[in-house]
Amino acid sequence: MKGYLVLENGDVFPGQLLGASNARDVHGEAVFFTGMTGYQDVATDPSYRGQIVVFTYPLIGNYGISDGQQEQSGEWQPRALVMGECSADGYHYQSKETLVSRAGGAPILTDVDTRALVKRIRTSGAMGAVITTDPDAVTWENVTPIEEQALVKEVSTQTMETFGAGDTHIVLIDFGHKKAMVDTLCAYGAKVTVVPYNTPLPTIEELEPDGLLLSNGPGNPKQLQEQLPTIKAAIMQYPTFAICLGHQLIALAFGGDTAKLVFGHRGANQPVIDKRTGRVDMTAQNHSYVVDRASLKGTELEVTHVNVNDESIEGLAHGRLPIRSVQYHPEAHPGPSDSQHLFSMFFRMIAKEKEVSVHA
Ligand SMILES: NC(=O)CC[C@H](N)C(=O)O
């Protein structure tokens, strides 16, 4: 069936519509992902909730759908996918599922001039978009801009869940976490309790965590204003590592600010420099918002990592407390695992804290 992506600025990109179970218009924010692989990880990453993801790599679906290794959550997360070409059946994985069947009715628009579309997003910025079969009948009424959508509560767990059986107990505050985070923490010897994003401090305390992990998640971090006092109290009490949305929340909790990038960073090759060591890691990224540098003045947060391409803030450390955060994804999925060493840093931070309390 013929389908279209219509941008909020009126531009129309035609294609072929696969997988849409009905002809209803699907609204979202059009963003682009530049990795060559990782479509299943992207399509199940809760941070993509509310978005229409355009792949710059021309052929998607070609290695198939895995039974689980690539899944970052149990659900299909983006509103829609847009690509140059969709491979009908992928090789590598033996699963009978194809990208279209895995999408479960969420639209996939193929045969799109993604190069022209991505250039447009790069110049005009990420913006509202619709996947439709009738571009002349599109309406923008009653569409809440993504900045104002409360997306975290759609993706955060409703109940607590425990994984692994290691000696170090990590409480993962779930703003829409990727499974790879839990898997990595468990591989490093942790027991992980995943808790809802709005878990009150006494409940966290009852769990007696050795450390906290503040996860990634969708949407505008300022939608979580109400949670900031609890987040601040919790991270001041326990060694904390925070990733992506979690990193932005740490800045907000300590009085910093966030701003939206024109078109964000989504891909697998963003170079990040550690200002303390000079080491550069190629990183997996997926974000629209960044911590605003000027807003950190007067806070106790220091910038530890910077994006080599645009000098945006990529990592923070608290001057006094064991709190570290990064804007990128050390758990990868999809992308390079160069920055996995940050998990070792987190466990060292926890071990040091334990030592201090034993001697206190
Ligand atoms: N992956 C994430 O956690 C994304 C954080 C936030 N939603 C952003 O777009 O900047």
TrEMBL record:
Active site (UniProt): 244, 329, 331
Ligand binding (L-glutamine): 47, 217, 219, 245, 248, 286, 289
Key word Amino-acid biosynthesis present: yes
Keyword Membrane: no
SMART domains (UniProt xref): CPSase_sm_chain (SM01097)
Metabolic or biological pathway, per its Swiss-Prot or TrEMBL entry: Pyrimidine metabolism; UMP biosynthesis via de novo pathway; (S)-dihydroorotate from bicarbonate: step 1/3; Amino-acid biosynthesis; L-arginine biosynthesis; carbamoyl phosphate from bicarbonate: step 1/1
Reactions accelerated catalytically: hydrogencarbonate + L-glutamine + 2 ATP + H2O = carbamoyl phosphate + L-glutamate + 2 ADP + phosphate + 2 H(+); L-glutamine + H2O = L-glutamate + NH4(+)
Region annotation (CPSase) ranges: 1-169
Gene3D superfamilies referenced in this protein's UniProt entry, alphabetically: 3.40.50.880, Carbamoyl-phosphate synthase small subunit, N-terminal domain
EC code(s) of this entry: 6.3.5.5
Highest taxon of the lineage: Bacteria
GO biological process, one term: L-arginine biosynthetic process
Record-annotated Carbamoyl-phosphate synthase small subunit N-terminal domain positions: 1-132
Keyword vocabulary terms for this entry: Amino-acid biosynthesis, Arginine biosynthesis, ATP-binding, Glutamine amidotransferase, Ligase, Nucleotide-binding, Pyrimidine biosynthesis
GO molecular function: ATP binding; carbamoyl-phosphate synthase (glutamine-hydrolyzing) activity
Database matches in InterPro entries: Anth_synth/Amidotransfase, CarbamoylP_synth_ssu, CarbamoylP_synth_ssu_N, CarbP_synth_ssu_N_sf, Class_I_gatase-like, CPSase_GATase1, GATASE
Function: Small subunit of the glutamine-dependent carbamoyl phosphate synthetase (CPSase). CPSase catalyzes the formation of carbamoyl phosphate from the ammonia moiety of glutamine, carbonate, and phosphate donated by ATP, constituting the first step of 2 biosynthetic pathways, one leading to arginine and/or urea and the other to pyrimidine nucleotides. The small subunit (glutamine amidotransferase) binds and cleaves glutamine to supply the large subunit with the substrate ammonia.
NCBIfam families in alphabetical order: CPSaseIIsmall, PRK12838.1
Similarity comment text for this entry: Belongs to the CarA family.
Oligomer and partners: Composed of two chains; the small (or glutamine) chain promotes the hydrolysis of glutamine to ammonia, which is used by the large (or ammonia) chain to synthesize carbamoyl phosphate. Tetramer of heterodimers (alpha,beta)4.
Descriptive protein name: Carbamoyl phosphate synthase small chain
